[in-house]
Amino acid sequence: MNGFNLSRSIRTRQLLQVRRMRKITEFEPRIIAFTCNWCAYSAADIAGISRFHYPANVRNIKVMCTGMIDPGYILRAFERGADGVLVAGCEIGDCHYISGNIKAKERVERLKKLLHILGLEDERLRLEWIDAGDGRKFADTIENMAGKLKKLGPSPFKKEVKS
């Protein structure tokens, strides 16, 4: 048969089919990241330029300051099917708007309590301080968050949403 092994070819096709099925059923969390224009967004940009690996299923939303994020935006992200939300801003004391990150911290703490009442785990909402030049920290934060969300599974609100 000119070196062609039919049984090996069938096995290869079966393995490829199993791999395709596994990709279809494997849960990949959808993360919305609200990033400060001055620090965290720049860190995300550096992470991309430096080709640091982090999950591709992250959507960055640039805001001028994390203190300007309306809690409704975060709740809307969960309502629309996000598995997790990251709020990333300047280090405490480095805010371009003086106390915006302190306001964000207070809001996120209140939102975590509300999410618990709504039946969501508080690990689905994360607040992180990331310097402008720290692309590695941004990538590590997303990687870590995605790992935790994979363990938690899809958001309970997700089944109601058609993507």
What does this structure look like?
It is a single chain. This protein is α/β, with parallel strands linked by helices and 163 residues long. The chain has one domain: Rossmann fold. 47% of the residues lie in helices and 14% in strands. The chain has 5 helices and 4 strands. Strand 3 (84-89), helix 4 (100-118) and strand 4 form a beta-alpha-beta unit. The longest helix is centred in the N-terminal third of the chain and has 20 residues, at 6-25. It is flat and about 65 Å long.
- The Rg value, from CA coordinates, equals 20 Å
**CATH architecture designation:** 3-Layer(aba) Sandwich
Low-confidence stretches: none
Total domain modules: 1
Mean pLDDT: 88
Looking at the structure, the CATH topology is Rossmann fold
SSE run? HEHEHEHEH
Strand order of the largest sheet: 2-1-3-4
Work out the number of β strands.
Answer: 4
Strand content: 5-15%
Considering DSSP H and I runs of 4 or more, what fraction of the residues is helical? 40-55%
Distance between the termini: 49 Å
Broad shape: flat
Structural class: alpha/beta
Q: How many strands, what sense, and barrel or not for the largest sheet?
A: 4 strands, parallel
